[in-house]
């Protein structure tokens, strides 16, 4: 792993869960004094260049974070060498990432909630077709995963 961990969060369209996970992880890393590089991307092309869903922006803003400047982008094969961790937000995303990953890519590919004891294999709530309150659920899931991943990366950095 590089000195500054690089983490990419991935969902389908890169307008809901992955920007929320990116924001939650960035905030958790900052609270813990962990220097990181973090981005998000999507597996589908539908929302390329668009900002996060207004409901995702609203939940982030309620939690003191502005994500409106983000623009959706696609995951590339190069991302598996640019990042230490490529993290899917659900099982479908994880399967897509594993299909896309080059055999010699260096990134560890996992689910976000795999980093939370007792939540391994679980998906971050997909709020897109749900009520606005589902965005709060997705935020809570993203924060739980982000906090656990930051703790892991901080422990790994301390062990170097």
Automatic annotation (TrEMBL):
Gene3D superfamilies in UniProt: 3.40.50.2300
Active site, per annotation: 11, 17, 126
Domain Phosphotyrosine protein phosphatase I span(s) in chain numbering: 5-152
UniProt keyword terms in alphabetical order: Hydrolase, Protein phosphatase
Molecular function GO terms recorded: protein tyrosine phosphatase activity
CDD domains attached to this UniProt entry: LMWPTP (cd16343)
Matching InterPro entries: LMW_PTPase, Ptyr_pPase, Ptyr_pPase_sf, Tyr_phospatase_low_mol_wt
Domain of life, per lineage: Bacteria
EC number assigned by the record: 3.1.3.48
EC class (word): hydrolase
A Pfam family: LMWPc
UniProt key word Hydrolase: yes
Family recorded in the similarity comment: Belongs to the low molecular weight phosphotyrosine protein phosphatase family.
Protein name, as recorded: protein-tyrosine-phosphatase
